């Protein structure tokens, strides 16, 4: 809606007239000063209109018409922080070389909601360790809107790509009334961690982060926040089986592979690398007869096994550790049955007998 108001001042030798004309942005200007003031054009038929203060955007015709050659865009002319955006021109009415009247015109450009919020980027990637404490805050980027405060940023909202909620919106460590809506755009928005992270359960979270302006209906902009969960060494190696069995014939050729144990660690990288070793008691009693490959878990006998020495059964305990050596698995038991072979000749022990005749 366009409107104007004016102020008339009589000076000793000339008249000073100032008025404001309000014009919605995004349109051309074309006004006649005399028609606005409801003045008979014949009164000023002998006057010459002289530009005193002009703008590159506005032109003045000799018939007192002020016009623009292009659409007036408030955001191009004024910063969004400026409450009142105006263009000022002054026109003089000259008669017989004398300046009789000065007309000051301020054209107030009224903002319309012709700009949407904008984020600097459409996507942001954040990395978080899976062992972060609840309540951890992640500062989010803010959106900008070129419109004035009437149509500037009004609120933010989030929506996660899972039914479980891991985050809520907050600012300055103060919870919001609605955990999904943040309506104080002058303060930086934050994501607050409200559910423990677990990389092994979900290694990527996507949060749709939306900014709305004050328009009706509101314009909006959306950013995708990708939260990558970094691994920490929080999982113990687990054997695929806690019990293995093997039958071994005594005097089996030494340095032969007997059995392989396997364990898995859900962590990534070095945290997930598994190393194998005998338990201390196994090393103490059987370390001279058996070995285990620390990388593959293959158990070999390094000396011939003698049934007469060990009996019918040998029990070995194997542990799996991650590379940091901090987390150890539950021991796996290897039950080795020794099969006797006829490898010993009978021995006859004759004692001297004394006979009385």
UniProtKB/TrEMBL annotation:
Subcellular localization(s) per the UniProt record: Membrane
Membrane topology note: Single-pass membrane protein
InterPro entries: Cadherin-like_dom, Cadherin-like_sf, Cadherin_CS, Protocadherin/Cadherin-CA
Single GO cellular component term: plasma membrane
PROSITE patterns per the UniProt record, alphabetical: CADHERIN_1 (PS00232), CADHERIN_2 (PS50268)
GO biological process: cell adhesion; homophilic cell adhesion via plasma membrane adhesion molecules
Ranges of residues in domain Cadherin: 1-119, 120-239, 240-348
MF term (GO), any: cell adhesion molecule binding
Keywords assigned: Calcium, Glycoprotein, Membrane, Repeat, Transmembrane, Transmembrane helix
Protein's UniProt keywords contain Transmembrane: yes
PANTHER family reported for this sequence: CADHERIN 96CB, ISOFORM D-RELATED, CADHERIN-87A
Protein name according to UniProt: Cadherin domain-containing protein
Encoding gene (name): 20214335
